[in-house]
Amino acid sequence: MKNDQLIHVSEELKKNQILISFSGKFSQTLIEELGEAVKKYLETEDIPKKEIYNVFSIFIEQTQNIRNYSSEKTNSFYYEQILHSGIVIIGREEKGYYICSGNITEGTDIQPLITIIEEIAALNKEELKKRYKEKLKEVLAPESKSAGLGLIDVARKANYPIEYSVKEVDENLYFFSLKAIV
């Protein structure tokens, strides 16, 4: 990037009311550091503590999902692309604060993810609470890496149904993004 192009990036961020953004490889340490920065930044805004907590929690869940997915793909031919493809943005729009995250995903992983998100997005708050409690009681299979609570919790904390998009990168990879509004 040329020095004089930075002004265009800054203008885009302002135009889209993006408060915080990060793109690249997510490590646990980086997620913790960014999480602290997000929390401190939001505390300077004039918003209720519950909203700060919900934005922070969703941010942490989304970045953890990216990191965990990347770490599962260490043996993938596409590992380096996946590892460095993560992005998270926190911004503001009419409905409230939004948290968007995205990363490159292998094609074989897209449909199961879409199925889960569409199921979760279709549930109302009471149904989400019930599903969350059911998942807590489930016995995990030994090979399972997750109880599946994270996306349900994101949907519970969001004020609107979670949204997603999928864009084909090539015949094997897709860019998956998720948006939650608090």
Helices and strands in order, then pairings?
Layout: H1 6-15, E1 18-23, H2 28-44, H3 49-72, H4 79-83, E2 87-93, E3 96-106, H5 107-121, H6 125-137, H7 149-157, E4 163-168, E5 173-181
Antiparallel strand pairs: 1-2, 2-3, 3-5, 4-5
Kindly summarize this structure in a few lines.
The protein has 182 residues and is α+β, with helices and mostly antiparallel strands.
Detailed description of the structure:
This protein has 182 residues and is of the alpha+beta class. The protein has a single domain (3-181), classed as Histidine kinase-like ATPase, C-terminal domain (Heat Shock Protein 90, 2-Layer Sandwich). It contains seven helices and five strands; from the N terminus they run H-E-H-H-H-E-E-H-H-H-E-E. A five-stranded antiparallel beta sheet has the order 1-2-3-5-4, with helices on both faces. A hairpin with a 2-residue loop joins strand 2 (87-93) and strand 3. Helix 6 (125-137) packs antiparallel against helix 7. The chain is globular. The model has no long low-confidence stretch (mean pLDDT 92).
- How many β-strand stretches? 5
What does the radius of gyration come to? 17 Å
- How many discrete domains? 1
CATH architecture type: 2-Layer Sandwich
Can you count the helices? 7
Descriptive terms for the model:
single chain, 182 residues, alpha+beta, Heat Shock Protein 90, globular
